[in-house]
Design goal:
By secondary structure, the chain is α/β, with parallel strands linked by helices. The protein has three domains: 30-206, P-loop containing nucleotide triphosphate hydrolases (Rossmann fold), CATH 3.40.50.300; 210-293, Helicase, Ruva Protein, domain 3 (Orthogonal Bundle); 297-407, Winged helix-like DNA-binding domain superfamily/Winged helix DNA-binding domain (Arc Repressor Mutant, subunit A, Orthogonal Bundle). 52% of the residues lie in helices and 11% in strands. It contains 17 helices and eight strands. The strands form two sheets. A five-stranded parallel beta sheet has the order 2-3-4-1-5, sandwiched between helices. It has a three-stranded antiparallel beta sheet with strand order 6-8-7. Helix 5 links the parallel strand 3 (141-148) and strand 4 (175-183). Helix 8 packs across helix 9 (236-247), helix 9 (236-247) crosses helix 10 (251-268) and helix 16 runs antiparallel to helix 17 (395-407). The chain is globular, with a radius of gyration of 25 Å. 38% of the residues are buried. The protein binds adenosine-5'-triphosphate and magnesium ion (MG).
Length: 418
């Protein structure tokens, strides 16, 4: 008997739990879709159309909603002889400048009409922009240009300035570009220069995080398709939704959790997926996320995290950086490692905040105490302890923190009722 055998007891069709799956309908986004539709309507009416900027945290449905709207737009536009519509989609995930985005756009446009790709290096930026304008002019009509995950270009945002103005500046004649920019980075949006903001974000649509009920409604049709009848306990979808809503409000996270729970049930040889599988799946995913984040940390970073975990175990959070710093220097002392300045510790804390490991609060106590920051873990203490335990030199601390937390009754499960 081989190591692997096909097992179809739990999953009927895992496709609906895949990241690339396109659902039949978009749920719980009526308001946003209505706004979106209104923003795109002028294309059908052959009127000038504003650019659109979608923003909201990861997993809130920006990409899937855009695919959905564009496919309707294309279908419906086809019924009018006087509308000449095309769409180009570029995911900027691995593109870090306007130059790269312009090259990607050119190649996307060329590929769609069987032309040759251009090289990703070797041109001046202006030359690439010129080629892009030529390609667009060849296409003609209204061209909806989707720039997904556009925040990756950072400050190199020339394309967001040039493209919307291509027509008014006379670089293109026969096309009307409509740009749909999508970003999950609020800072990117706030930092757009006013001149870019003016044109790109003429119409803004915010995608807020989902609450537990909305996630349930998104998960249900997928769960229905993904699992055999009778496999899923009634509380599984609600619990996945509750966990994801409490953490990020991301549909992606909720879907992953459900899939992971199914996989754990399958691995158990269990005939049903239960609440326990969800809780284990949640632990598993949290640990993965944490491990990933932790791997980026240096010993100094680990020491800072360890200090914070200790305060957490004593139930003394949020903690001010100067108090945290004292604990940190003591930990360094016991590790026989040099400690760094309080300022550097704050840098480490800010990195950890970016990784989603900790939460930072900015306090302003007026003139007397001034402004300062307070910190607490943004992941379960239990998960930090697991990781510290498996990080060399930190095993002993993990033990100490564990018993402190136990004394304070802090290691119970994180969601006991939902
Ligand atoms: N309202 C919804 N109805 C059905 N499925 C949804 C909905 N919102 C999100 N999803 C699903 O959740 C997953 C994440 O959604 P999507 O990729 O659109 O998020 P996003 O906002 O683009 O996130 P990111 O900023 O990380 O790119 C996808 O699998 C998508 O199909
Ligand atoms: Mg997306």
């Amino acid at each position: 008997m081989g190591m692997f055998q096909r097992d179809r007891r739990v999953f009927a069709d895992a496709e609906p739990l895949d990241d690339s799956y396109e659902p039949e309908d978009i749920r719980e986004r009526d308001e946003e879709l209505e706004k979106y539709q209104r923003a795109l309507q002028p294309i059908i009416d052959n009127r000038p159309t504003s650019n659109i900027f979608l923003y909201g945290k990861t997993g809130t449905g920006k990409t899937v909603a855009t695919k959905f709207m564009l496919s309707h737009l294309e279908d419906d536009a086809a019924q009018y002889d006087d509308i000449d519509l095309s769409t180009v989609w570029v995911s900027c995930e691995n593109l870090s400048s306007s130059y790269q985005v312009a090259v990607a756009l050119v190649n996307e446009l060329r590929e769609s009409r069987g032309g040759d790709r251009i090289s990703t290096t070797g041109y001046s930026q202006q030359r690439v922009f010129d080629i892009l304008y030529e390609e667009l002019d060849v296409l003609g009509g209204t061209v909806v240009i989707v720039l997904d995950e556009i925040d990756n270009i950072g400050h190199s945002d020339d394309i967001l300035y040039g493209l919307p103005r291509a027509r008014s500046n006379g670089y293109v004649e026969d096309i009307r570009p409509v740009i749909v920019g999508i970003s999950n980075d609020f800072q990117f949006r706030d930092n757009l220069s006013p001149k870019v903001k003016d044109t790109l974000a003429e119409k803004e649509i915010l995608f807020p995080p989902y609450d537990a009920n909305q996630l349930r409604s998104i998960l249900e049709p997928r769960a229905e398709k993904a699992f055999h009848d009778g496999v899923l306990d009634d509380d599984v979808v609600p619990l996945c939704s509750a966990f994801a809503a409490q953490d990020t409000g991301s549909a992606r996270q909720a879907i992953r959790l459900l899939r992971e729970a199914g996989e754990l049930a399958q691995a158990d040889g269990s005939e049903t997926i239960t609440e326990v599988h969800v809780r284990n799946a949640q632990d598993e995913l949290e640990k993965n996320q944490l491990y990933e984040g932790m791997q980026e940390l240096t010993t100094q970073g680990h020491a800072v995290l360890c200090a914070l975990a200790y305060r957490e175990a004593l139930d003394e959070v949020p903690v001010r950086s100067r108090d945290l710093y004292k604990r940190y220097t003591r930990i360094c002392g016991r590790l026989d490692t040099d400690s760094v300045s309080e300022r550097r510790v704050r840098d480490h804390l800010s990195d950890m905040n970016m990784l989603g490991l900790i939460r930072v609060y900015e306090r302003n106590e007026g003139l007397s105490a001034g402004r300062y920051h307070e910190y607490e873990l943004d992941v379960p203490l239990r998960a930090v302890l697991d990781v510290l335990l498996s990080t060399s030199r930190f095993e002993d601390f993990a033990g100490i923190i564990h018993s402190a937390a136990d004394d304070n009754g802090l290691l119970r499960s994180d969601i006991s009722d939902y």
